[in-house]
Amino acid sequence: MNPPEPIHDLARGDIGISRQLSRALRVLMDNATEPRLKNELRGILEGKGSARELLHSEAFNLVVDQTMPATMNQFADMTDEQRQRLAEQGEADLARLRSQPLPDEFRTEPVADQPPPPAPAPATNIVVPGTRRPNRERIVTPDDEDEDDRYFRERNQRGWLA
After folding, report:
1. Contacts (Cβ under 8 Å, ≥6 apart) of 102
2. For 83-108, what is each residue's pLDDT tens digit?
3. DSSP string, 30-58
4. Are 54 and 44 a contacting pair, CB within 8 Å?
5. Residues facing residue 87 across a β-bridge
6. Largest Cα–Cα distance of the chain, in whole Å?
7. Do 138 and 60 share a domain, yes or no?
8. DSSP letter at 130?
9. Count of beta carbons in the 10 Å neighbourhood of residue 9
10. Which residues are within 8 A (CB) of 58 and not within 5 positions of it... i.e. 6 or more apart?
11. How many domains is the chain built from?
């Protein structure tokens, strides 16, 4: 039986982000000249390493130090419309990656005695008001009052045993 498609730790369970990260890691691996970096990237793509640990890699940080200034300058030179168009392309790409079927290399055949697992719910790009991403945690700012704030304010005013 083939191993499941690895979901990268930085993706927080989001298959689209994980697939996009895999694509970026493959580009880095294909263009890397440092053998140690290539091995680290290969291990992460095979699910044997952590993308989070890559951020602490000296070889990776050298590549970032060499490429990031030019990338940041290119981003700074973009108009707001170009940035918006780029963001929309990225969202469309993520939606496509989330809905893609599992690649053959990670597909496993169902066991004859067991029914196939249920199909995953279709990914939607509907942003829930007050959240950062579709169906994600609510954003709380210092100005917002929530349940916890009311609870502790009441306890401070009345005491814990009141």
Report:
1. 5
2. 899 889 888 888 888 887 765 544 44
3. HH---HHHHHHHHHHHTTSS-HHHHTT-H
4. yes
5. none
6. 68
7. no
8. T
9. 15
10. none
11. 2
